[in-house]
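My current task is to audit a protein record that another person submitted. I need someone to confirm that the token line plausibly describes how this chain folds. Take the sequence as given and treat only the tokens as open to question. This is what I was given:
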Amino acid sequence: MTDAAEAHHEFQARGPHSHVQRCASVRKIGRPIVEQLQEIFLGIAAKERPDDKIEVGFCAHDGTYSMDFAVQCIETKGNVAKTLSDYVITMVKEYQDDHRYKALGAGISKTAWNLSLDLPARMWAELDIPTLEFKRNVAERDRNKTPIVDVDEEADAMARKCVSMYGPQKQPLIQVRFLNEVDVDAAGHALLCTLEQYRETVRKPTWDATMYYTTRLKKRGIRMAFLNATPQGGGVALMRHAMVRLARLLDIEMKWYVPRPKNEVFRITKTNHNILQGVAGPEECLTDDQVNTIKTWLYSTARRDWLHKDGPLSKIEDGGAHIIFVDDPQMADIVPLAKEVEPGRPVLYRSHIQIRADLVDEQPDSPTAAVFDWLHSRVKEADMFIAHPVSEFVPKVVEAKKVAYLPATTDWLDGLNKELRFEDLQYYFENYNAHALASNQPQLDFPTRDYIVQIARFDPSKGIDTVIRSYGELRRRLYKDTTVSQTPQLCIAGHSSIDDPDASTIFDEMMELIDAEYPDLANDISVMRLGPIDQELNVLMSNAKICLQLSTREGFEVKVSEALHKGIPVITTRAGGIPLQVEDGKSGFLVDSGDYRMVAEYMYKLFTDEELYSTMSKYAASHVSDEVSTVGNMLSWLYLANTMAGEEGKKLEPNGRWVNDLARETAGVPYEEGEPRLPRRYKI
């Protein structure tokens, strides 16, 4: 308890002091230990008192019932918001550390949040606790009066409300609400970031340009709608969660919709994805029945949800969006439907994969050409074809004047990227090892041994077999005379996506490869499909010595920039848009796809040359472009909406320009010499 606090009731639960002492003794003699923290939820409430003090209530909840509480009063010392947030952060940190708890989430009363608006964001940034704000429900009999509720009672209610928002994966449930709109951050209850935090993630010109368009769009009341296939699991979904989160802070109307899930369709669309990238089997093709299945799936959701009043595809006068952005080849049929309803409304299509344009252009009878013919017959009506920034991704049949380039992005404030304090790093690392043990996979011996990581979906284009062969070459040839305990391990991990049925097949193939060709290294190769817990991937990336991304086909793969941002050198292939992110020899190394021997050579070089590693790490961390951040991404979409939507909107023909360049120039803050940005004229 701080000196400024007046206790009404202290927490009663005692910390496990004997357990802590035993763990410390074991660590002291050098024996490995896995310490599992008890997972809890918190409730926080506060109210001002007539004597200018704040009464604060805390509740600890084990997921079944309340287990502990405290009530204290604090002096405000003039700055109520900072005093309250400092006090709560200190109390929660001490309570967790003393009792060996890990809070999975916290509920905070609306009154407490109003007293300290930055408290939830600080809980997320400093203590890794998603904090959800709730109003207190008032019983029917009390609606005509203001009932008096003690802060301990309200804190208990907040904890219970928080628990109700979590699912079996110990994460807030994804909310898909009326009209199949994705209601991000637990339907807006989770307050993870502030606008000021986002401002600090980018350089001043990027922020100024973003605010330039924000002001104009708010004044004009422009409504934007994004439509893609799934709300969770892939890079598109990650970008949209972050975009809508930032849009709420900017107070602009941006909504995100997904169709109702259908596994039959996901098998078809994943095969189409593989065919377009040129990694499908020769027998795979798109049939007329499959084309009809995809269209029926999308039209059923559109008719039930999106074409009605206030739906995104309804007429603008009926509350429809002023501009529509369509992601994913799965959603192609939405483009002509949207144009049929409102012909003058801009509809922009974003192509987020590496399309084998060479097969489309040069082999018109190939399955790739057939799938793209189907895709293009739908999206040719779009006002713009936005591709990852590599010209070879765009077949010649696409009108050149409609082509624009825009990279994938990541969010520096989300669970994948934010900095974690040591206690949380340890918690997630031990969670990973516990999951590995339960899955009969090797555990990572970090920090005793270094490890190499590739984080990616289990997909045929991710080059996971090359990752394994590269590690085998490193260990068998370059470390052949080195004691095993002095060699690095290999970690291959990734989330699953609900529209990706290939993951299990690829996982099984990789395990068969290890068993058949590298049985002597099997105990040092940890291969894991993880649940949707971003911080586990964050910890694996943050503590790795080297990051690999050895894809054979790739649109962009922003995991590369995430690693560089952490100062982790990356060895990657010259596949798709990946080389745009890595400066060869400065922030990492580029190799040809499948060249596992060269990958091994570069890994060995980074492990054995400390000066090279240090120089490369520092350069990587300081040369990541704003273009791959959420704010940089928002800037591009706001520019497009401001330019093309509404009565003042006009036709825009980018003719192969980067959207970010157009946005910066129009806002009057073009790129200056020396400002980090992705290469503009890269060719595969």
